[in-house]
Specification:
32 strands, 26-stranded parallel sheet, two-stranded antiparallel sheet
């Protein structure tokens, strides 16, 4: 691969260009933005509609500023190349600062859009990963005009800010298991701000984290083909306040989970170990027990639904104050891929933690694929239409959890706690953990992403749940 990656030390002494203002006149963005590899550029999109032609790159140490209300439409791609895609390379930055009333939107140009029309947004950073060297990001093939490698040793790396950003109809399969997602994050550091971001109808995962330490808050994933959140290669950031909604009409051949977490593809505990810290997540799966298979979008393939949260390949976790409902299995510890027994001992001895969560499953809320630790028979509470325990029977995923109307997205606030509920106190779901969470996560008296007070509904006004 030809790499034009700039040397960071040299570039800090390179000439700085005047800010390049690109007005909202339907401008088409192509190739590498800026005036050249030896100049430190700021490119400013002032609002309105822009078009992404193929893969568009922000080069090392350059900054792309996107004003509120900007719409970036991806032009169609081919079978071998994704539709309009934006890639922020290592050392580059994006500052996409929308508002609740005027979000920044990445979307399709088509009158009848579909998942995979565009390649989405890719951010590459210099935080640590557990892979040797600096891998090439998935989903981008061929010779590229700038580097598409990621990884480094700067866990506080800053790739910019995303605030009130929506990414629609994104994703691209270069080859099997080599894909772009709605939002693809490669070794992004915790100096980066990702807050109030939605991924709508991605062709693969909603958000995939390839290592790194970036923290994410107020995130929404709606109708991904595959997993809503996918962690691997040593990701260990914090995620708080998240709403994940499964697509009941299609599932991926690789099995669609709400969360899928791997340490690495070798199934060994390489360092740093994948260990996301998660709090106040609401995950809504299917209203009925899923069929064993579902027909995928054309070209047709066999897709399957999996678990609300699948932890495998030596990955670890801490999960607090969440609501998971509507999957065949709830919390699944899977050793079938070859993880060591020591990994399961780590689960048992406190290396991984799940506290103060509400878990529903049509089959089993808590399950292990390791026969030495057969949690598959564990049901902490008996099934009943409403036993006020926080666990529900397989026939009604919302019977005891009692959200407003979780499977009817035409109802405003369908994901909020229902008022007048025995589990609700003014009007939040009780039982949240208020102290004892890891540094950087906020304790709450409620479980799930929302406290139930309509005025505090952080998804209102800017999120999209159906077109």
């Amino acid at each position: 691969m030809l790499s034009c990656e700039k040397n960071q030390q040299d570039q800090q002494h390179s000439p700085v260009s005047a800010t390049q203002i690109i007005p909202a006149n339907g401008a088409t963005l192509n190739g590498v933005l800026g005036v050249g590899h030896t100049v430190r550029d700021t490119i400013h999109l002032t609002g309105g509609t822009y078009y992404l032609n193929g893969i568009v790159y922000v080069d090392t140490l350059d900054v792309l500023q996107i004003d509120a209300g900007s719409v970036l439409k991806g032009l169609p791609g081919t079978a071998a190349t994704p539709g309009g895609t934006l890639v922020i390379t290592r050392g580059g930055k994006i500052e996409a600062l929308g508002t609740a009333s005027a979000p920044v939107v990445f979307t399709s140009t088509k009158s009848t859009p579909a998942a995979g029309d565009i390649g989405g947004l890719v951010i590459l950073g210099r935080a640590t990963i557990n892979q040797p060297g600096s891998p090439r990001i998935e989903g981008i093939g061929g010779i590229t005009p700038v580097s598409v490698l990621y990884g480094g040793s700067f866990d506080n790396d800053n790739s910019g800010k995303l605030r009130y950003v929506r990414i629609e109809y994104a994703g691209f399969e270069l080859s099997v298991d080599n894909e772009l997602n709605g939002l693809t994050l490669g070794a992004v550091g915790n100096g980066t701000e990702i807050d109030f971001v939605e991924v709508y109808k991605a062709k693969d995962d909603g958000i995939q984290f390839f290592g790194g330490t970036v923290n994410v808050s107020h995130v929404i994933v709606v109708n991904p083909l595959d997993d809503a959140l996918d962690f691997e290669y040593g990701y260990r950031g914090r995620i708080q306040y998240a709403l994940l909604l499964a697509d009941s009409t299609r599932a991926d051949r690789s099995i669609s989970n709400g969360i899928e977490s791997d340490n690495n593809i070798s199934n060994v505990p390489l360092l740093p170990v994948t260990k996301p810290l998660i709090a106040n997540l609401t995950m809504i799966g299917l209203p009925n027990r899923p069929l064993a298979i579902k027909t995928n979008f054309p070209p047709s393939a066999i897709g399957r639904y999996g678990a609300a949260a699948l932890w495998r390949s030596s990955s670890q976790f801490e999960v607090y104050n969440t609501i998971l409902l509507g999957y065949e299995n709830g919390f699944l510890l899977d050793n079938s891929g070859g993880s060591t027994i020591d990994t399961q001992e780590r689960y048992r001895d406190g290396f991984s933690i799940i506290k103060h969560n509400l878990v529903h499953a049509y089959n089993v809320p808590f399950h292990s694929a390791n026969p030495l630790y057969p949690y598959n028979s564990m049901r902490p509470y008996p099934d009943a239409p409403d036993n006020n325990t926080g666990y529900t029977n397989p026939l009604d995923p919302n019977a005891a959890i009692r959200l407003v109307k979780p499977f009817d997205r035409t109802v405003p606030g369908f994901y909020l706690p229902k008022t007048g509920n025995p589990l609700v106190v003014s009007p939040a779901l009780t039982g949240g953990l208020t102290i004892g969470l890891p540094v950087g996560l906020t304790g709450t008296i409620y479980r799930g992403a929302f406290d139930g007070i309509p005025g505090n509904d952080w998804a209102a006004a800017w999120a999209v749940f159906a077109y």
